[in-house]
Amino acid sequence: MARAAKDRSKADLAQLVEALDEKSRAILWHLWWYRHAEISELRELIDAPSDFEVLHRLKGVINEKAGVLWGRPIVGFEQSRTDSITGQKVFFSWWFLDEEIAPASVCGRPLVDVFNEKDCVALIAQLPASVDYAHADIGFKNGILKVSLKKVDGSAAGREK
Q1: Element (H, E) at 133
Q2: Is the pTM of this model over 0.85?
């Protein structure tokens, strides 16, 4: 029963991600990846003119849509909280509240997202665990980026380099 609930929450997260606009998705991905961020960091991430735009996206877009799906927010503000992974005390930051769930595929397709950020273009993609991240073959031709990653056996799979 717990497995079914976890699979449902992954599907709901995928549905939420697909329902968000680009800037709101960028904020959600950032919080999911880093677990927390200060509002100034999120403002720079989406090149917002003020904190108010970021707050609107956090509360009025991301949490509102999460509320429809789960009846509760997916991001939240904390004046002081300890990062469970680093042990670092973090002050005045926004947090991704569902750390145990990871994005799932959307409509049977793996999640892939591209963000045109202020100083870079970020590509986020869901990949199988059987990928060797250390040896990427990257090509670019006619405006198309191709990244090829070799598959490996289960013993070396999923290592982050």
Answers
A1: strand 131-141
A2: no
- Of 2, 23, 30, 22, nearest to 103 (Cα)? 30
Residue where the block lists tokens 């070396």: 156
Residues 19-29: pLDDT tens digits? Answer: 899 999 999 98
| Structural contact between residues 75 and 97, judged by C-beta atoms closer than 8 angstroms | yes
Give the end-to-end CA distance of the chain in Å, rounded to a whole number: 35
Say what the alpha-carbon torsion angle 155, 108, 111, 8 is, to the nearest 10 degrees.
-90
| C-alpha pair distances (Å), 93 with each of 4, 13, 96, 113, 160 | 32, 22, 10, 24, 26
CATH number for the domain formed by residue range(s) 2-108: 1.10.10.10
Residue-wise pLDDT for 95-112, tens only, equals 999 766 555 544 455 667
Burial of 42 (0-12, 13-18, 19+ CB in 10 A): buried
